[in-house]
Amino acid sequence: MLGAAVYEKLADILVNHFQVDRSAISPDATFEDLEMDSLFLVELLLVVEKELGVKVDDDAATPRDTIGRAAEVIAAQADAAAAS
User: CB neighbours of 54 closer than 8 A, spacing ≥ 6?
Assistant: First the structure.
């Protein structure tokens, strides 16, 4: 799964499931910038798993991580799952 496609899907999830303003979303924005904490990240990863079928470890992202980095981690997990 390409990182750019995952980034777009992640942005869609943030907008549609968590009512984040799309203009606030960028690859360099952190979850802290969006006022989202570690509990939010657990919830986000559950939605990602449901929407994308990708299991991501709860500790794979922190509030200080950027949305772009989270998309890379999710894409890497998807690629690893597809390869196994």
Answer: 1, 48, 74, 77, 78, 81
